[in-house]
Every structure is written in structure tokens, then in C-alpha cells.
Amino acid sequence: MTTDVFSPEQRSAVMRRVKGRDTSPELAVRKVLRAAGVGYRLGGCGLPGRPDVVMKGRRIALFVHGCFWHGHDCPRGARQPKTNADYWIAKIARNRARDEAAVQALLSAGWRVVVVWECDLRRPDFPAALIVELTGQAASDLA
């Protein structure tokens, strides 16, 4: 096991800067929704898992997940950490279990759950595909 390159105080400062909301992927998704005129709320309004974006009228809970933090099966998400690997593997496993529990709770409460992965944002068809998934119609039809 290798030791951390940062002191505990420096590591703490680095981890404090990891954002939990208003991340770049989340802002990109919200920009797509705004451009298409899709209304939404932030903050999860007391729902399980605190979805990043909620569309109450459509009963859609949207999560924007970072591939590494939530253990996606893409190349970035499948990458194994080199430092403190046991901790991170367990942490990501707990994140995945928590995500699955939140999804199941939302589904059983009658919500539709949409998960957007960070790597999805790089696809050229992402904005149109997201709007179709959320509204059932192309963005050009909304105008």
C-alpha cells in the first residue's frame, strides 16, 4: 500500500473542494433542459437520494452521476484507484448500493428515474437524446 502524497490537512483541503452540487456535468444537463424549455426544480424536494433535478409534474427524478464516484462501467468509472485503493473501492461500492436503494424507493413511489452519466455528456447526440427521453418529443417539437 502506498502512502498519500498529501499530508492529512492537505488531503482534507483537496476533498473539501470536491463539489456535491452544481458540478460541471450537472450545469451542462441543466443548460440543455433550459434551452429546450423544460421546467425543473433543484434540491430533490425531500425525495430518496436527493435527485439533482426534479420534474414534479412529469414525476421524473434525474440524477447526474460522475463516472468515477458512482462506479460506471465506462473506462473512467472502471479505473481502479492506485492510492488508498481499499478505501475507494469500498466507498464506490457503498455509493452504488445507496444509488440503487434510492432508485428502487423512487420507482416504488411512482417516479420515473433517469440517470445521466458524466461520459454521456460527450456524445454529440446527448442533448437531443436527453430531451426525447424526458419529454417523449424532439427538442425541435418543443419550440
Folded structure, characterized:
The protein is an alpha+beta fold and 143 residues long. The chain is built from 6 helices and 4 strands, in the order H-H-E-E-E-H-H-E-H-H. The protein has helices spanning 8-16, 24-35, 75-78, 85-108, 126-135, 139-142, and strands spanning 41-42, 53-55, 60-65, 112-117. Strands 1-2-3-4 form a 4-stranded mixed sheet, with helices on both faces. Strand 2 (53-55) and strand 3 form a beta hairpin. The model has no long low-confidence stretch (mean pLDDT 87).
Question: What is the rounded distance between the termini?
Answer: 56 Å
H/E order of the elements? Answer: HHEEEHHEHH
Proportion in helices:
40-55%
Q: Measured on Cα atoms, how large is the radius of gyration?
A: 17 Å
User: How much strand content do the residues show?
Assistant: 5-15%
Instruction: Report strand order across the widest sheet.
Output: 1-2-3-4
Average pLDDT number = 87
The helix-and-strand class reads alpha+beta
Shape: globular
Biggest β-sheet strands, sense, barrel: 4 strands, mixed
Number of strands: 4
Task: Provide keyphrases for this structure.
single chain; 143 residues; alpha+beta; 6 helices; 44% helix; globular
At a glance:
Helix content is 44%, strand content 12%. With 143 residues, the protein is of the alpha+beta class.
